[in-house]
Amino acid sequence: MSIIANANIRSVDLNLLVALDVLLDERSVTRAAERLSYSQPAVSGMLKRLRAVFGDPLFVRTRRGLLPTPRALELIGPVKSALAELNAVFSPAAFDPARANTVFSIAATDYAQHAILAPTVEAMRFEAPGIRLAISPADAKTMAEQLETQEIDFAITIPEMAPPHALSREIFQERYVCAVRKDHPDVGDAMTIDQFCAFDHILVSPGGNSFQGPADTALEAMGRRRRVVMSVPNFLILPKMLLAENLMALIPERLIMDYRDRLKVLPVPFAVPGFSMIAVWHERTQQNPAHRWFRELMIKKASAAPA
After folding, report:
1. Do 184 and 262 lie in a common domain?
2. Which pLDDT value is given to residue 12?
C-alpha cells in the first residue's frame, strides 16, 4: 500500500517525509525543529502540509506531547523504509570501512556480547576505526519494534527470541560443557553421570529465580536429578562463581575459553541440546553496503570454532 494515498507523488515535497520521520521519533514539534535545524513555525507548517497530504491529523496534542494517530503509527515502517531506500540511491555504491564514520546500534544478550561482539569489535577497531557501536540488552518483547523504528540496526540472539518476519542468519551452533575450578577436590579427568548428579551446581536464570535448565530437562527424561544450589541472572558471572566455590556449571563452550587456565572443562556425560546464535536485521538494511559489511565481519569473526 502506498504511504501517500491521496496525492500525486510528483507534487509532494519529499522533505516532508523527513520531517514526518523525525516527528514520529520525537513526538514534539520543538524537539523535531531542533533536530532538523528548522524553526518551530517551519515544522508546524510542515505538519500542516503533511496533514493535508495524508488526509489525517497524524498527531493529537496532549500534556505529554504529540500523540500519533493510528494512521501515523501505520506510517512508521513505510516512511523509514522509503527514506532508507532514498538514502541508498544517493549514497556511494562502494563502502570503504577504513574511511567509514557511522554508528551501529546492536541489541545483544550478555552471552552474545562476550562470544560474538567482543571478537567483532577487535577486528572492527583495526579495519574500521571510525565506526562506533551502541550496545544494549536484547529484549524479545521490544525487538521487533526496535528494528522497525531503527532504534537498533541488529539484534544478536537465539532464534526463539527473534521477530518472526525479520531477516536473520545463523552465526554458529553452540554446545554445552561442564566446568569446575581446577582444584575442585572431587573432579578428575573424566566424569560419569553419577558424579555429575552428585555435585552442587550453579545455573543461569534470566530472572534469577529458576533452578531448572537444559541439563535438568535431559536428566528428567532419564529419571535422574541434580542438585542446583545457586541461580544467577547472567552467564558472565558464572566463571567467577566457579573460581570462588566448589560448584559445577553446564556452560556454553565459547564462554569458558578465556578461563581454561583456571577452570577444568569436561564433556557433559549425557546428551544435552545446544543452541543456535543468529544475527537479526530489518529488510530495509539488507542491501545497505555498511550494514552488509558489518554483518559479514561479525559472522566471520564470531563463527570461528573455539580453540
Report:
1. yes
2. 67
